[in-house]
Write a structure and sequence with these properties.
Number of helices: 13
Largest sheet: 8 strands, mixed
Shape: globular
Helix content: 25-40%
């Protein structure tokens, strides 16, 4: 087999890249380790920056997102019983759209199938070869058969545990990581959202987040210990703890019900440099991970896709390699800014188990700074809706 771009990973970043390339007449084959059903069973957040929505539109996959997504012009931050609304539209001139990542992925699969794009599922033993040459190729097994895919470039969109990042020699890679001393316990329930905008709540008991998937499907989180197990938390215990962390007026409006999904996610920050080696380009979680506090995971992947797509388009259309040559530096410049914002939001809103009295006072001062200064709220809003590509 031969193609121009081999895309490793059939998640939203790999699929979005494949659709954008197809619009330019650039051939791509997507290799996915799991089945399509498994990929679509993953529960992920879905706060989309305006830039992400524009990319979906450019890829021709925006109809259902526009029809069913919820445009949010702001979000609520609460500190015990005090609330501050961050008006995205007024402060930053943009909005965000709440639309589940599972639905984004479903729309991209539907579009790829409709356009006849090649996606190979259940591929195993993927190995990337000769990445530092002008003739890279990928070997893998599918349904017991050995296969080879020759290509011009490889896009590694296969997440943190994929093969792409580790295909860059250890002597070349530099990795940065921060592990946070807590996790998020998340519950999905078929209940109406407690508010029509997201609520980020900081209390003496810890952090909580109120979000939604649609008008009758809510997603809630509470900060928890890393030693906790999802099974340790009954539904009643979760709802009781969530209420304690919300402002009284919000807690009284909370509609509870049986959980249909419950899980715990650890929080960490991670960046791999460089994001390009030879003919290999890393995108999304293969290169960087952020804590979910700032809603930057999928959106950071989209910015990678933007830079890589533009670079490949210029290479094939104009034989101009400046875009792909500068891909790593340009992508990392934005990645580190989103890392900073996610780290800041996490530090602002959570309770750290080892914090000193000085740390507590600094957190209180930071909260007051945000509550009192419009400029601080504007900075938050501009980062939350998405920095320009």
């Amino acid at each position: 087999m031969r193609t121009q771009v081999a895309i490793i990973g059939g998640g939203p970043s790999g699929l979005l890249l494949s659709q954008l390339l197809m619009k330019e007449g650039i051939e791509a084959v997507v290799l996915e380790r799991q089945t399509k059903a498994h990929v679509l069973s993953r529960i992920r957040a879905g706060v989309l920056e305006s830039g992400f929505v524009r990319l979906m539109d450019e890829a021709g996959v925006v109809r259902r997102l526009v029809e069913e997504g919820f445009v949010h012009e702001g979000a609520i931050l609460s500190f015990d019983n005090e609330q501050v609304r961050i008006d995205f539209a007024e402060l930053a001139g943009q909005t965000v759209t709440v639309y589940g990542q599972t639905e984004v992925t479903r729309d991209l699969y539907d579009a790829r199938e409709a356009s006849g794009g090649s996606t190979l599922f259940q591929v195993e033993d993927v190995v990337l070869h000769d990445l530092d040459s002008d003739k890279p190729y990928v070997t893998f097994r599918q349904h017991g058969q050995d296969m080879r895919l020759d290509c011009d470039f490889v896009a590694g969109c296969d997440g943190f545990h994929g093969v792409s990042r580790t295909s860059i020699p250890a002597s070349v890679r530099r990795e940065f990581e921060k592990v946070y001393p807590f996790g998020w316990l998340g519950v999905l329930s078929e209940t109406p959202p407690v508010h029509d905008e997201l609520i980020y709540a900081s209390s003496q008991r810890g952090f909580a987040l109120c979000s939604m998937r649609n008008a009758n499907l809510s997603r809630y989180y509470v900060q928890c210990d890393l030693s906790d197990k999802a099974g340790d938390w009954s539904d009643d215990a979760f709802w009781d703890e969530l209420r304690r962390r919300l402002p009284d007026s919000v807690a009284q409006s909370l509609v509870t019900g049986p959980s249909i999904e419950k899980s715990i996610a650890p929080l960490r920050s991670y960046v791999c440099e460089p994001m390009r080696w030879g003919r290999l380009f890393l995108c999304g979680d293969a290169a960087h991970i952020v804590p979910p506090t700032g809603a930057k995971g999928l959106n950071s992947a989209a910015s990678d896709v933007y830079y890589l797509h533009r670079g490949l388009r210029a290479f094939y259309g104009e034989r101009d390699s400046a875009g792909i040559d500068g891909y790593s530096a340009k992508a990392l410049a934005r990645v580190w800014k989103t890392q900073r914002f996610s780290w800041w939001m996490t530090s602002l809103l959570h309770r750290f188990p080892d914090r000193s009295d000085f740390d507590i006072r600094m957190q209180q001062a930071e909260i007051a700074h945000l509550q009192e200064l419009r400029a601080a709220q504007e900075t938050l809003a501009r980062n939350y809706v998405g920095l320009p590509y």
